[in-house]
Amino acid sequence: MSEQTTPIAVIAAEIPPKNKLSNYPEPFASRMVGRTKHPLGDLFGLTNFGVNLTRLAPKAISALRHAHTKQDEFVYILEGHPTLHTDEGRTRLSPGMCAGFKAGTGNGHCLINETTEDVVYLEVGDRTPGDEGHYPDEDLKALLIEGKWQFVHKDGTPYL
After folding, report:
1. Torsion angle, CA of 151/155/156/160, rounded to 10 degrees?
2. Positive/negative CA dihedral, 112, 133, 104, 37
3. Which residues of 81-108 are buried (b: 16+ CB within 10 A; e: fewer)?
4. Distance from first CA to last CA of the chain, Å, rounded?
5. Which end of the chain has fewer CB atoms surrounding its CB within 10 Å, N or C?
């Protein structure tokens, strides 16, 4: 008889949130205050894609506006009315709405909670090796190396 190491099913909101506010270096990490991520996929040992239950407090943002070279992303709004900021502009979302971001398009995106109530959504992204994150509004570039994000300036010099 084998001992089970992952649960069969859980209540998503009861999964402990990530301890670290953000992987971003400063001065960017502190801009993620008010964002709480519950790593659902990791709990089940998923390695091909990640799933997070994410909560944004009022005035919080999901991430710096970014685009991936190899990673597809998807969000599904459960509660609240975030603003989706993309290259096309700003779009108000509601519960039940979803958005997808195809890899390689260069279309920077993020969610912003411009309301006085929390926003809750599911975010899904794959974990394709060799991915890069580009940030059109910041001097920042992310490189996925051996499963870990490393951040550099746009000219390639590392953040210290």
Report:
1. -50
2. negative
3. ebbbbbeeeeeebeeeeebebebeeeeb
4. 49
5. N
Checking if the pLDDT of 2 tops 80, the result is: no
For the chain, the structural domain boundaries read: 25-129
C-alpha 17 chain-centroid distance: 13
Query: Whole-prediction pTM value?
Result: 0.93
Handedness of CA 18, 137, 122, 78 (dihedral sign): positive
79 C-beta neighbours (distance < 10 Å), count: 14
Residues near 63 by Cβ (< 8 Å), separated by ≥ 6?
Answer: 32, 110, 111
pLDDT digits (tens, 9 = 90+) for 94-119: 999 999 999 999 999 999 999 999 99
Tokens of 38: 């519950």
Only one residue has tokens 């953000």, namely: 22
Q: Per the CATH hierarchy, to which homologous superfamily does domain 25-129 belong?
A: Jelly Rolls (2.60.120.10)
pLDDT digits (tens, 9 = 90+) for 13-47: 999 999 998 999 999 999 999 999 999 999 999 99
